[in-house]
């Protein structure tokens, strides 16, 4: 039974901030998961602390924590994988990690339609956060490719959902941060690829305007479905927002070196090197990050074309360092990710200027152009721009700085990403998601007693 795996644990998100204690259970089947949900629902309302699903723990904040309640670890949930090449779709259990998924798809010449900046995300987490990647402008987010899913709700029902079958609950689940039920399995489209490599164009750009112009330009005869820009947030003045733009597509067999053409779909990411277990406080500060940023910018080619790179190094460079979040020291890190709509480019410039003026030491700041979103009420992406940056959790003045940025984002018609947030105020976040009441009504139908909850849901009063 699932109960035999119960353990008490102190949990955090990937940012390693705001730890809370919960009872962790690890079911192996949907039936065991349903039993855990029923047990949580049967607690007296005065004592009920609820339950939430958890995948690989890569939400930066508190989305997969439930203080005093039950955290249902879905990593072993009903392992399954069925590829239908004729329909170009795969069915996978919710606990399947993208790393495993990529490894199983590539030998068949297939690849997930959307991948984020880490491959250590489960299928269930990809749906719950409606993840997006460097190809959002071309492919939208993960939920746009989901054809059906199975959802466990606290009443023990195991529902089959699709965009055409109970679409309200389907889209409330996509981007719903696990608060409508536990996804146990999903069927989604996959892309055809010839190789396990990427053909990459790189441009070193002198400022933010040049970065946006390059990423917003038409691709003509050489499409680049994937595009992102690393930004030096410590550069100021005429160099404000200088960066390195990378645009790419999947490489074709004929573009590989002759030796690689014999096995073009080979995929073997290098084992990750481990970050040191103990890191001194403030290792990443304005001086060290400024030196890193200057070196990274100088090393990038002014105009590189057609470089062939492995999938792993293009999509997931940080996965090469295991537990890289420890580099931020004992106080952890805060990831701040926001989106602003098209037409709000001047506000985006002001935000970048504010961060540069504050000397915010972020060595990982990434700008992406977003395309059309999904019908999901709580999905993050919108047509426009998104900037994500990591900051040390103990940075002096961090809280008031980010509150000021929240106000700028809200005034511009933008929003923060629930999967990254660890500190926003409930009134601000609720104003950023105008369809929240619509989502709440659907959630109440699936979970009328509010059994499913998380530290994020409590903090933001979702």
Write up this protein.
- Helix content is 26%, strand content 24%.
- It has 462 residues and is an alpha+beta fold.
- It has an eight-stranded antiparallel beta sheet with strand order 16-12-14-13-19-20-18-21. Strands 5-6-10-8-9 form a five-stranded antiparallel beta sheet. The chain has a four-stranded mixed beta sheet with strand order 1-2-4-3, with helices on one face.
- A hairpin with an 8-residue loop joins strand 1 and strand 2.
- Helix 10 packs antiparallel against helix 11.
- The radius of gyration is 22 Å and the shape is globular.
- The model has no long low-confidence stretch (mean pLDDT 94).
Q: What characteristics describe this protein?
A:
462 residues, single chain, five-stranded antiparallel sheet, 26% helix, 14 helices, alpha+beta, eight-stranded antiparallel sheet
Topology:
Elements: E1 7-11, E2 20-25, H1 30-41, E3 51-54, E4 70-73, E5 81-84, E6 89-93, H2 98-105, E7 110-111, H3 123-128, H4 136-139, E8 146-152, E9 158-161, H5 167-173, E10 182-189, E11 191-192, E12 197-205, H6 208-216, E13 226-231, E14 243-250, H7 258-261, E15 273-274, H8 286-299, E16 303-310, H9 311-315, E17 321-322, E18 333-341, H10 345-357, E19 365-370, E20 384-392, H11 398-411, E21 415-416, H12 426-432, H13 436-446, H14 455-459
């Amino acid at each position: 039974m699932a109960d035999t795996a119960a353990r008490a644990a102190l949990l955090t998100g990937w940012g390693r901030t705001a730890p809370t204690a919960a009872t962790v259970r690890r079911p192996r089947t949907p039936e065991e998961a349903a039993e855990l949900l029923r047990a949580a629902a049967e607690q007296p309302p005065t004592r009920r602390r609820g339950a939430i699903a958890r995948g690989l723990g890569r939400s930066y904040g508190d989305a997969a924590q439930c203080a005093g309640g039950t955290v249902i670890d879905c990593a072993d949930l009903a392992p399954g994988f069925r590829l239908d090449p004729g329909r170009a779709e795969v069915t996978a259990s919710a606990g399947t990690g993208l790393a495993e998924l990529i490894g199983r798809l590539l030998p068949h010449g297939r690849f997930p339609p959307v991948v984020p900046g880490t491959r250590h995300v489960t299928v269930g987490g990809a749906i719950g956060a409606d993840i997006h990647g460097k190809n959002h402008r071309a492919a939208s987010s993960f939920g746009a490719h989901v054809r059906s899913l199975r959802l466990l709700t606290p009443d023990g029902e195991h529902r089959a959902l699709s965009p055409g079958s109970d679409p309200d609950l389907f889209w409330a689940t996509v981007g719903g941060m696990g608060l409508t039920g536990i996804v146990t399995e999903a069927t989604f489209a996959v892309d055809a690829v010839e190789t396990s490599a990427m053909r990459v164009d790189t441009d070193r750009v002198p400022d933010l305007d040049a970065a946006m112009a390059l990423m917003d330009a038409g691709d003509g005869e050489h499409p680049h479905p994937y595009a992102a820009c690393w930004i030096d947030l410590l550069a100021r003045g005429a160099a404000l927002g200088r960066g390195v733009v990378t645009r790419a597509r999947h490489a074709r067999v004929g573009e590989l070196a002759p030796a690689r053409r014999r096995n073009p779909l080979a995929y073997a990411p290098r084992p990750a090197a481990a970050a040191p277990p103990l890191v001194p406080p403030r290792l990443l500060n304005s001086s060290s990050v400024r030196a890193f940023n200057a070196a990274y910018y100088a090393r990038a080619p002014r105009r590189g074309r057609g470089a062939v790179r492995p999938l792993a190094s293009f999509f997931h460079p940080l996965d090469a360092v295991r537990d890289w979040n420890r580099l931020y020291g004992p106080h952890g890190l805060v990831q701040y990710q926001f989106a602003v709509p098209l037409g709000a480019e001047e506000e985006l410039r002001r935000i970048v200027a504010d961060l540069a003026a504050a000397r915010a030491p972020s060595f990982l700041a990434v700008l992406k152009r977003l395309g059309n979103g999904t019908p999901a009420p709580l999905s993050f992406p919108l047509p426009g721009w998104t900037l994500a940056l990591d900051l040390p959790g103990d940075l002096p003045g961090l809280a008031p700085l980010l509150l000021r940025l929240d106000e700028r984002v809200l005034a511009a018609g933008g929003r923060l990403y629930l999967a990254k947030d660890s500190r926003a105020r409930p009134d601000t976040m609720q104003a950023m998601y105008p369809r929240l009441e619509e989502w709440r009504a659907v959630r109440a139908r699936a979970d009328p007693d509010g059994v499913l909850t998380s530290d994020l849901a409590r903090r933001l009063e979702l």
